[in-house]
Amino acid sequence: MLMDTNYDVIIIGSGAGGGTLAFHLAPSGKKILLLERGDWLKREIENWDSEAVFVDNRYISQDSWFDKKGNSFQPQVHYFVGGATKMYGTALYRLRKEDFSEIQHYDGVSPAWPISYEEMEPYYFKAEQLYQVHGERGIDPTDPPAAQPYPYPAVSNEPRIQQLYDNLRNAGYHPFPAPCSIMLDEKHPHNSRCIRCQTCDGFPCLVQAKADAEMVAVRPALEYPNVTLITNAKALNLETDPSGRTVNKVIVEINGKRESFKGNVVVVSCGAANSAKLLLASANDKHPNGLANASDQVGRNYMFHNSQAVLALSKEPNLTHFQKTLALNDFYFGMEGFKYPMGSIQMIGKSQGPMYRGEKPIETALLPMMMLDDIARHAVDFWLMTEDLPDPNNRITIDNKGKITLNYTPNNQVPKQKLYDKLKSMLNSLEMHPDYLIPRSLYLKSNIPIAGVAHQAGTCRFGTDPKTSVLDRNCKAHELDNLYVVDTSFFPSIGAVNPSLTAIANALRVGDHLLA
Asked: Within 13 Å, how many C-alpha atoms sit on residue 463's CB side?
């Protein structure tokens, strides 16, 4: 069967950026091609098997990247229709209004964005509608202004998390309902697709109740006859016309064969690392350093958050199933005695014994699974997230075979430690179990290594100056007339909340620009 090769719009990548853009452009009638290097994620019982997901890495790609010392590692990337959202924890936060401005941090400056929060705000709401976000505004003291309430009510807390919520409130803090993108109807549970299971964060959803890019964007887009999806299609490089101003071919490998497609508009949305790789691999005479890279900024300023998974032990069993219903931003911009931003405290998915084996195989090798299961029974699981700052030396490069090297040196570590210490100091008043060795509380703490790329951003930053940015304010490459990037690559800074909603909202914003 011969495939059409000429399209009005070609979108490379079907995740939060690319999938959302395809959905937004679909009603235009324009001929749209959506290329996805992975396949549909198979619905199978292993979707909910913590050992298959966390120990066997069943859904993680087989890619090998290299760190700055030349050591190979397996990045935790997922190539499926819907991209990384197939495995995400459904946490869809807006950046704070202040995150769009220049902010002084302990370790440097977080730069201002070329657009304002006010410009993004209506797209945030459209994104929350599309991705069915549940939440409640006005409780979080850092909550940015919003013209309308969340489209769906906040997800209720289960008893142990409600107890934690009450303890925090009684201690003078401001916990708030975490914004969750799940297909949940608590008033009419018989109609609810979501069943509040324990296997959401980091798992595929067997009952397809995550409002992920596949479910709310790609599948509805494919209902339009003008939208075509090709899976198992890996973009190899982009070719330009002789002037170097227009991308006129997208070279793709499909089932081992090279194919080429032409698009009037070409949109890259492969994830921050792979989008940079594609542009660098597309060097030609007019773009000797890589496509759109006269500024030498492609691949630079890689960010992925200073994140920590922290486990505390509750005095009482924590029998929660869906745990990601609470967050705390009281220390987002600092605290008394520390004037610099610290970041966000969130809940993460309820831990299970096999997860510990997968996350810390050496440390837990001699521990019986019964002991790990007992730890999990009493675990209350937190996610601490501090902003890492854009550094031009933190970058993606490729060799002549296309192998990715991620050169990354951590920064802004003091605020990260301050946030951890602050939570640690609070736990005894939150009915967590005191450690019998030291007068504190008992933790398992896991720093997220560079292989944890779920929040990767920043490699094709947008801005008004072509000398210091790759993209303009509409996410079009400064040097090309028809090339756009709509994943998290465009971020000039990353804030201290999950980046997915901002990528979705920006895809809608860029979509309006393209429609105009």
From this structure: 18
Q: What is the pLDDT of residue 366?
A: 72
Rg (CA), the chain: 22
Q: Are 23 and 130 in contact (CB under 8 A)?
A: yes
User: CA nearest 136: which of 154, 110, 159?
Assistant: 154
End-to-end CA distance of the chain: 35
Specify the 3-state DSSP secondary structure of 514.
helix
Is residue 31 a contact partner of residue 7, using CB atoms and an 8 Å limit? Answer: yes
Token pair of 238 as six digits: 């982009």
Task: Extract the runs of DSSP E, i.e. beta strands, from 368-412.
Answer: 379-386, 395-398, 404-407
pLDDT tens per residue, range 403-455: 999 999 999 999 999 999 999 889 888 878 645 222 223 455 667 788 889 99
For position 444, what pLDDT does the model report?
56
Among residues 179, 171, 216, the alpha carbon closest in space to that of 24 is found at 216
- Weakly modelled stretches of the chain, pLDDT under 50: 1-2, 434, 436-442
CA–CA gap between residue 375 and residue 466 (Å, rounded): 53
- Which segments within 81-206 are labelled E, that is strand? 103-105, 108-110, 133-134, 176-177, 180-181
3-state helix vs strand vs coil in the chain, percent to 5? 25, 25, 50
272, containing H or E segment:
helix 272-280
- Residue 410 CA: distances (Å) to CA of 21, 86, 164, 305, 309: 32, 28, 32, 9, 17
Amino acid at 182: I
Cα distance between residue 353 and residue 340, in whole Å: 36
- Which amino acid is it at 114? P
Please answer whether residues 266 and 501 qualify as being in contact, where contact means their C-beta atoms are separated by less than 8 angstroms. Answer: no
Q: What is the largest CA-CA distance in the chain?
A: 71
Residues 363, 189: Cα–Cα separation, whole Å: 41
Q: Could you tell me if 215 and 181 are in contact, meaning their C-beta atoms sit under 8 angstroms apart?
A: no
| Contact between 284 and 239 (Cβ < 8 Å) | yes
Q: Residue 515's pLDDT is what? A: 98
Is 118 buried (19+), middle (13-18) or exposed (0-12) by CB count in 10 A? exposed
Those residues whose C-beta lies under 8 Å from the C-beta of residue 504, and which sit 6 or more positions away, are 16, 17, 20, 92, 127, 130, 131
Q: Return the pLDDT at 433.
A: 60
Whole-prediction pTM: 0.95
Look up residue 166 and give its two tokens: 């009450």
CA nearest neighbour of 316 among 468, 436, 159 = 159
Residue 488: which residues within 8 A CB-CB, separation 6 or more?
16, 17, 271, 272, 455, 456, 457, 458, 499, 502, 503
The DSSP secondary-structure symbol of 70 reads: S
Cα 241 to Cα 259: distance, rounded to the nearest angstrom: 17
Residues in contact with 170: Cβ distance below 8 Å, sequence separation at least 6, in sequence order = none
Structure confidence at residue 326 (pLDDT): 98
